[in-house]
Every structure is written in C-alpha cells, then in structure tokens.
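Why do we care about 3D structure at all? Because function follows from shape, and shape follows, mostly, from sequence. That is the central idea of this module. The next example makes it concrete: a single protein chain, its amino acid sequence, and then its structure expressed as tokens.
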Amino acid sequence: MEFLDKISFLYNGFKELVDWRYVVMWIIGGILIYLAIKKDMEPTLLLPLGFGTILVNIPHSGAIGDGGALSTLFNAGIANELFPLILFIGIGAMIDFTPLLANPKLMIFGAAAQFGIFFTFCLASIFFPVKDAASIGIIGAADGPTAIVVAQALDSQFTGAIMVAAYSYMALVPIIQPPVIKLLTTKKERLIRMPYANAEVSRLTKILFPIVITIIAGIVAPESVSLIGFLMFGNLVRECGVLDSLSETVLANLITIFLGITIAVQMQADKFLQPATLLILGLGLFAFIFDTVGGVLFAKFLNLFLKNKINPMIGAAAMSFSSVSVVSNALRLRFFTPKWKHESGTADLQTTGNGGMMEQSTAAAEIADRIAQNDESKGETTMKKTIKIEGMMCQHCVKAATKALEGVAGVTAVTV
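And the structure:
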C-alpha cells in the first residue's frame, strides 16, 4: 500500500475522469478540430482553440495554473489585450479601403448592418449584467478580435463562449445568410446587376485615411484609440509603400494561432459547461441574423429613392469589412446563370491583387459574354482572362473567390 501511495500521482488523473465534464470538453475540442480540418472553417483559430480545449481539460493539466504555459501566455497576451491588438495590425495590413474611399456611401451600409449588435445587447441585458450583455452583443460585429477586446475590457466572465460564438458564426456566414436574404428579398431583387465603376483613389488619400480616422475616433471615443489605432497603423503600413515586406498575412496568421490556443484557458469545463453558454451561442446567432436583416432592409429602403438600384445582398455583406464580403460575392457567383447556353467554349481565369465588393460578379458576367461571343463566331474557342480583384485579405478569401469562379459555366481552370 505504501508503494501505491508513492505512485498515486500516476493514476490520479484517471480517477478524475469520473467527472463527465472533461469528456464533454474533449468532444467539443474534437469538433472544433474537425471543423477546422474537414470543413476548412477558420482553421487558424479553430484548430488551436480545439487542441487547447483538450489541453486545459486534462485532469491536473500542467498547461494551466501557476507556471502553466497557457496561463502564462493568457496573462501576457490576452488579459492585457496585447494579442488581439497585434492581430489588428496584421488585419489592417491586409485591408484595402480603396472601394470604400471611392464610394463612401458604403459606410452607411456598414452602420445599418450593425443593427444586430444593439438588438442583441438589449435582449441579452434581460439575462445578463450590462457588461456581459455588451460583450455578447459585440458578437454581431462579425469580428473575432473586437469581440475579445471588448469582453476583456469589460471583464466578462464568458470570454471563451463569446469567442467560440464569434468565430464559429463568422465561418458559418454562407449558411446563415442565404435563408435570411431569400426570406427578405424577391428573386428580381437578388438578380439586380450593379455596374462597377473603378474610380481612382490617390496614394495621398490612402495614406491620410488611416491617420484621419484614428484622430477622429480618438476624439469621439478615446477608449477606442488602441483598437482603431492598431488597425489603422496596419493599414498605413500597407499603403505607405516602404514596408511592403511587412504587409503580409504571416503576422496575422501567427498571432491568430497563438490567440486560439491561449484563449482556450477560458474553455475549462467548470467555466464553459454552463446553461449561460448555450444562451450566449443562441444570442450570437441572433446577432448575426439581425445584422443581415438590418443591412438587407436598409438596402431595400434606399432602393425606394434610387434610380440605379442596389442589390440588397450588398447590405448583408456590409456587416463586416472582412472576408464576409468575399463570401457573399462567392454566393452571388455560385447562383449566377448566364442567359446563353454554353456548348463548347472554355476559359482559363487568372485573378490577381486585391478587389471591390461587386467586381467579381461583374467580371464573371463579362467572361460569360465574351465566351458566348467567341462561341457564336468561331465555334470551339479557348480564352484566357485575367481579372484584378481587390480586397482579398486572406486564404479564406482566395478559396472563396476560386470556388465561385470555377462555378461559372465554361470555365475550366482558375488560378488565384
């Protein structure tokens, strides 16, 4: 018996497994890993988050607690908001604000598509304290780092659940938005063709934009300076033209991986497995749905007064100036049906650079028309078309654009 007492540390962990919560959290971690690998849903975040969930839910895990690696990283990078802010530099370096500067009215759509945030905040305040309700409402911003920063700044006890909801629903936008859009629009509205005017924006304007926005945001809301300032600094790095080697996705991807595995500290069974978690996931879905509703209805309202109608789906895309826009365009292209019947013509597509919210669908229509014309005049023809698509910010955007363009009739090869 004395010998068994000496080696009891070897099997104490197995005795702890009688607590079913550990097993449930392993399953949740496994699901997150599955979604990242099999479904390609935000892999840079869900993969480390899923694995980290397993790490912190091993009985007596050395990864957490005093001296634990993940706890140390959490205190150094999450508790003081450092990791999300550094991530914002990387995000800013990937954003092209040219379409917004060329067409400033898009900002109005962005504001309208935040309706879900305020609606969810009001609803969540019935069940949670105001600070937690505000943190939950920000899920509707469709931006993971913002949700983390707000949750940490307001000292919410549900940071883990909020982060899982924010990033999961961002990845599920192609599933969440189409039914809502179809419910609120007619087929005729969804088929509205919007001409894309490639307006020129001077380099000086692009450089001044992040500086001016930071100053204005700082005066109006001083607490936002760190968040907005880091985002705009990243964009300034992109637009200045002298730090090109830094304006890549490597920084953002690396920080996102650290962010995911570190935030898993909040995924401990005793913190995560609560009825409140399920309520937060439901409220997060509610926020995304009503963001879409707000953007679509606002576009429909503007169409009452506009000569050149706006496709209401643009209002849904405006819920976030991120890959959500590209995903929405991918949905438009996926259901694009040319008016001609293609028999034999083919096209090789090559896309380059960075693109506006509407340019992809316009380019696809142009390709279809060109293929049709070639078929009628020359019979079987192969054509190569290069399109410049601005606004590509990550590999998720690239994959979405590639899949959409491959779905255009007559296209046999796409290189992005």
